[in-house]
Amino acid sequence: MTRLRPSVYLPVGKYRTARWWEGGMAKRERKEAEAGGEVRERLLSGATELFASKGYAATTVREIVERAGVTKPVLYYYFHSKEGIYLDLMREPFGKFTTIIEETLHTAGSARERLFRLCLMAYDIFVENIDAARVMYSIYYGPPQGAPFIDFDAYHRRFQEAVLQVLGEGVRDREFRRVKLHDAMWAVIGALNVAMEVELCHPPQSLGRDGVRRVLELVLEGIAVKRKDSGEKGRKR
Q1: Contact at 8 Å (CB) between 87 and 10?
Q2: Which residues are CB-neighbours of 168 under 8 A, at least 6 positions away?
Q3: In a structure prediction context, what are the per-residue pLDDT tens digits for the chain, which is 237 residues long?
Q4: Which of 51, 54, 84, 237 is most buried, with most CB under 10 Å away?
Q5: Alpha carbons 187 and 193: distance in angstroms, whole number
Q6: Distance CA 53, CA 135 (A)
Q7: How buried is 152 (Cβ within 10 angstroms: 0-12 exposed, 13-18 middle, 19+ buried)?
Q8: Would you say 68 and 49 are in contact if contact means Cβ atoms under 8 Å apart?
Q9: Sign of the C-alpha dihedral, residues 163, 120, 37, 60?
Q10: Domains of the chain in sequence order
Q11: CB neighbourhood size of 231 (10 A)
């Protein structure tokens, strides 16, 4: 007989945390759990679609498992709860986001190309996880939905710091003119954010990756040290 822990209450409402011994699992549930990554991805995909269309609070575990074609114990096996599936949904894209920031800061190359790399890869992650982005926007900008707290601002601050650092290195190496770094940072991030929001809200007008690069080229061209200027400064020395 399957043994369940008592029900507990969280801000998102009442849920029952199901735990069971291997011997107590039904054959179908064990088979579904052993299916591995495919079942896990179906659960994540189904939950993402439901969170994006209905909202986190309005989505139930029953709807998620029905969408994935599995049973509740299988969801509990992989994620333990609705809160767990939400956290995993956000963990993957933000994990990639953190990785590209750190790689950009420790990769050799010009400041210009490193900024292109950072911004274009961030754009790629956003587009690849557009439904997860929609969920994040609804939770961050919308009314409270009882979702587990994620410090989205911390990721945004880290991105700002990375852009500032690369811009500063570009000024130091005389790729960029001496400008107010925070102004330049907001110009770069602003261009990227607008491209992302167009992708999210007005897909037919999407700039696409090439369009984002062209816009960033215009921004960076505005602060670039011209060869003529660089040569004149060199002669004065």
Answers
A1: no
A2: 181
A3: 444 443 333 334 333 333 433 344 445 555 544 555 789 999 999 999 999 999 999 999 999 999 999 999 999 999 999 999 999 999 999 999 999 999 999 989 999 999 999 999 999 999 999 999 999 999 999 888 999 999 999 999 999 999 999 999 999 999 999 999 999 999 999 999 999 999 999 999 999 999 999 999 999 999 998 866 544 444 343
A4: 51
A5: 10
A6: 9
A7: middle
A8: no
A9: positive
A10: 11-80 (1.10.10.60), 89-236 (1.10.357.10)
A11: 10
Query: Which of 144, 150, 10 lies closest to 80 in space, CA to CA?
Result: 10
Q: What is the rounded distance in angstroms from the CA atom of residue 137 to the CA atom of residue 200?
A: 10
CA atoms within 13 A on the CB side of 28: 5
Asked if 51 contacts 59 with a C-beta cutoff of 8 angstroms, the reply is yes
What contacts 201, CB < 8 A, 6 or more positions away? none
What's the whole-model pTM score?
0.78
The phi-psi region of residue 212 (left if phi > 0; otherwise alpha if psi is between -120 and 50; otherwise beta) is: alpha
**DSSP codes, 112-123:** HHHHHHHHHHHH
Angle (nearest 5°) at CA 21 between 16 and 24: 95
What's the one-letter identity of residue 57? A
Q: How far apart (Å, rounded) are the C-alpha atoms in residues 45 and 203?
A: 20
